[in-house]
Design brief:
It catalyses: (2R,3S)-3-isopropylmalate + NAD(+) = 4-methyl-2-oxopentanoate + CO2 + NADH. It comes from Brachybacterium saurashtrense. Pathway: Amino-acid biosynthesis; L-leucine biosynthesis; L-leucine from 3-methyl-2-oxobutanoate: step 3/4. It is found in: Cytoplasm. This protein has a ten-stranded mixed β-sheet with strand order 2-1-3-12-11-4-5-10-8-9, with helices on both faces. The chain contains twelve helices and twelve strands. With about 350 residues, it is an alpha/beta fold. Helix 6 (about 190-205) links the parallel strand 8 (about 180-185) and strand 9 (about 210-215). It has helices at about 15-30, 45-50, 60-65, 85-95, 160-175, 190-205, 215-225, 240-250, 290-305, 310-325, 330, 335-350, and strands spanning about 1-10, 35-40, 70-75, 100-105, 125-130, 135-140, 150-155, 180-185, 210-215, 235, 260-265, 270-275. Helix 1 packs parallel to helix 12 (about 335-350) and helix 9 runs antiparallel to helix 10 (about 310-325). The two termini are about 20 Å apart. The longest helix has 19 residues, at about 310-325. It has two domains: about 1-105 and about 255-350, Isopropylmalate Dehydrogenase, CATH 3.40.718; about 115-250, Isopropylmalate Dehydrogenase (3-Layer(aba) Sandwich), CATH 3.40.718. Bound molecules: nicotinamide-adenine-dinucleotide, 3-isopropylmalic acid (IPM) and manganese (II) ion. Nicotinamide-adenine-dinucleotide (NAD) binds near residues 14, 74, 274, 277 and 282.
Length: about 350
């Protein structure tokens, strides 16, 4: 048998509850295809930080790099200063492993209730830039804590960085409905905004079949609520992509269903798959978290590593489970492990 080496980072809060379900789903999907899953658990997050003061060491990074993929739950904990784990662990991984594509699909599955009155046929994918923008940490604080404090967060955008993610987005559009929407705010952020605009225009010349559209990010909030079916591929910067994809998750049936992949398309580093949601301290430890977003992230992982049939099996199991939930109060009130059990059984029994 072949082997898939999976690095597992449960992280904090509900990450510890949803990730085990994702690992079970991955095994159930791959075993019939003759692929064994070999997991390495990484103790990273609030617990490790409290015990050792470490967030992510060079040794952790070197060991993670030896894996085919990483499955991550969520990081962030009310007992740790905000930003320590988010920046020091999650963003460090995305940056160090050059996950320049943050792929976040939204599909309103049959039977799933959207909070929108007229959701239409919702099936789009956000290609969020993952290694630049305001996330680079190029900022600082002067005279901290005084009345004269100055705080900066400088957004860094490079032609190379924008072009590679834009090219990826066009390639996605070619495989889908051939529509690409750039989301930015070039009426105010004239430097980064026009860089994105120019590059989209240039790359579009190589894709005459792809219809190109633009929305300012504020107006995008309107369109995602009023007419989400108009979108196919959405390409945007790191921060706008973060915001757009929480709204996308909500209108697409709930954040408990929203999946993502942090992808290094070159294969130079392992890609990392995680639900869009965070550690949800408000429901952590109660078996209340929906593991579906993590299981759907496993489907993206399988696609990324070329396991198409297992990926399709995972999606089919989720789709059937969501339809079944819609028709049954009993199924709709299941907890994390019960949903996991049902998905794993459906994937294994295919
Ligand atoms: P959150 O996504 O953790 O929670 C937002 C809301 O969604 C909460 O009401 C929560 O209960 C609900 N929710 C989230 N996931 C759910 C699931 N699977 N099933 C059912 N309900 C779910 O966002 P937040 O509260 O803003 O952040 C909490 C912590 O998580 C912070 O420390 C933040 O920095 C961190 N965070 C981490 C990641 C990540 O690791 N990728 C992502 C977002 C937030
Ligand atoms: C996400 C999260 C992260 C982000 C945080 C926790 C760093 O919100 O994955 O969407 O902003 O990218
Ligand atoms: Mn987010």
């Amino acid at each position: 048998t072949r082997t898939l080496r999976l690095a597992v980072i449960e992280g904090d809060g509900i990450g510890k509850e949803v990730v085990p379900q994702g690992v079970r789903a991955l095994r159930a999907a791959l075993e019939p295809a003759g692929v064994a899953v070999e997991t390495t658990d990484f103790d990273l997050g609030a617990g490790r930080w409290h015990r050792t003061g470490e967030t992510l060491t060079d040794e952790d990074m070197a060991r993670l790099a030896e894996h085919d993929a990483i499955l991550l739950g969520a990081v962030g904990d009310p007992g740790v200063p905000s930003g320590v784990l988010e920046r020091g662990l999650l963003l460090k991984l995305r940056f160090a492993f050059d996950h320049y594509v943050n792929l976040r699909p939204t599909r309103l599955f049959p039977g799933v209730a959207s909070p929108l009155a007229n959701p239409g046929e919702m099936d789009f994918v956000v290609v969020r830039e993952g290694t630049e923008g305001p996330y680079v940490g190029n900022g600082g604080s002067l005279r901290t804590g005084t009345e004269l404090e100055v705080a900066t967060e400088v957004s860094l955008n490079t032609a190379v960085g924008v072009e590679r993610v834009v090219r990826y987005a066009f390639a996605q559009a070619e495989k889908r409905r051939r529509k690409l929407t750039l989301v930015h705010k070039h009426n105010v952020l004239v430097h980064a905004g026009h860089l994105y605009r120019r590059i989209v225009e240039q790359v579009s010349l190589e894709h005459p079949e792809v219809e190109v559209d633009y929305a300012h990010v504020d107006a995008m909030m309107i369109y995602l609520v009023q007419d989400p079916s108009r979108f196919d591929v959405i390409v945007t910067d790191n921060l706008f992509g973060d915001i757009v994809t929480d709204l996308a998750g909500a209108v697409g049936g709930g954040i408990g269903l929203a999946a993502s992949g942090n992808i290094n398309p070159t294969g130079a580093f392992p890609s990392m798959f995680e639900p869009v949601h965070g550690s949800a301290p408000d429901i952590a430890g109660k078996n209340l978290a929906d593991p579906t977003a993590t299981v759907l992230s496993v489907a993206i992982l399988l696609d990324h590593l070329g396991h198409e049939e297992p990926a399709a099996a995972v999606r089919a199991a989720v789709e059937n489970d969501l339809t079944a939930r819609a028709g049954s109060e009993e199924l709709a009130s299941r907890g994390t492990t019960e949903i996991g059990d049902a998905l794993v059984a459906a994937i294994a029994g295919r």
